[in-house]
Write a structure and sequence with these properties.
Layout: E1 2-5, H1 9-13, H2 16-28, E2 32-34, H3 44-48, H4 52-65, E3 73-75, H5 78-85, H6 87-90, H7 95-106, E4 108-110, H8 111-118, E5 127-135, H9 138-144, H10 148-155, E6 158-162, H11 178-181, H12 183-199, E7 204-207, H13 210-222, E8 228-231, H14 232-236
Parallel strand pairs: 1-2, 1-3, 3-4, 5-6, 5-7, 7-8
């Protein structure tokens, strides 16, 4: 199967290894990966701050970038996927663009969603010894409805034991610009999240959104906790 890769800003500039391993995983699963070079920022930071009109040029540029073919679009970031999925709503005053946005949104999948639901694969042959906590990001479970797919893949990782924690699905406090505008509240939220994670003494914290992992990982680091922070694709590419 041919697929387009949507790298996202964080994957491009902060966590290049996540982007690289996503491509490697897709290729391992017999996908031919295409990288539309015109892709850029999906506009999420501005959109979350309410700058809808000023974000429209970026949205339209993204739409044009992924109109080069009709193949599925895969990204290792639920938050960016959720942002693009809302393009038709943001562009509803421009029916032609809204229709084009809908066609792109319909082809866009978060990585675990694509692997489990589109490829029909639940075991990618990964192996990782140790105990892990999975953080279900708000973007995946609340905006995309992707709740079981990451867990299905992680439960099939040989040697990995997933540990439940208190308030597992509570927000970590990042929320994009929320963590800047409401920094004190955000700080308390991530502190509580790390307390719950640390209580079960895991070897790994695993998530499917880079932004949440940066937020929680930063708190873990400041507290000196011996917990390795891993994007889910890091786990799925472990052997």
């Amino acid at each position: 199967m041919k697929v387009n890769f949507f790298v996202t800003c964080l994957g491009d500039t902060v966590k290049a290894e996540v982007a690289k391993k996503t491509v490697q995983l897709l290729e391992q699963l017999k996908c031919e990966v295409i990288f539309p070079e015109r892709q850029g920022c999906c506009g999420q930071p501005a959109l979350n701050s309410g700058y809808i009109e000023k974000s429209k040029p970026a949205m339209k540029s993204m739409i044009e970038a992924f109109e080069i073919n009709d193949y599925p679009i895969v990204t290792p970031a639920g938050s960016c996927a959720a942002s693009v999925k809302k393009y038709p709503h943001y562009l509803e005053d421009e029916p032609e663009w809204a229709a084009r946005a809908q066609k792109v949104a319909d082809r866009l999948f978060e990585l675990t969603q694509f692997v489990v639901r589109q490829l029909g694969i639940e075991n990618v042959g990964a192996r990782l010894e140790g105990k892990g906590v999975y953080h279900p990001s708000c973007s995946l479970i609340r905006k995309l409805g992707v709740r079981e797919e990451p867990l299905i893949l992680l439960n099939n990782v040989e040697g990995l034991e997933l540990l439940p924690i208190e308030n597992q699905e509570t927000c970590c406090g990042f929320g994009g610009t929320f963590s800047v505008k409401m920094s004190e509240i955000s700080g308390e939220m991530v502190t509580e999240k790390v307390q719950h994670i640390s209580a079960v003494k895991p070897d790994f914290l695993i998530g499917a959104d880079i932004s949440c992992l940066l937020n929680i990982g930063g708190r873990i680091s400041r507290e000196g906790q011996p917990i390795k922070v891993m994007h889910i694709v890091d786990v799925l590419m472990s052997r």
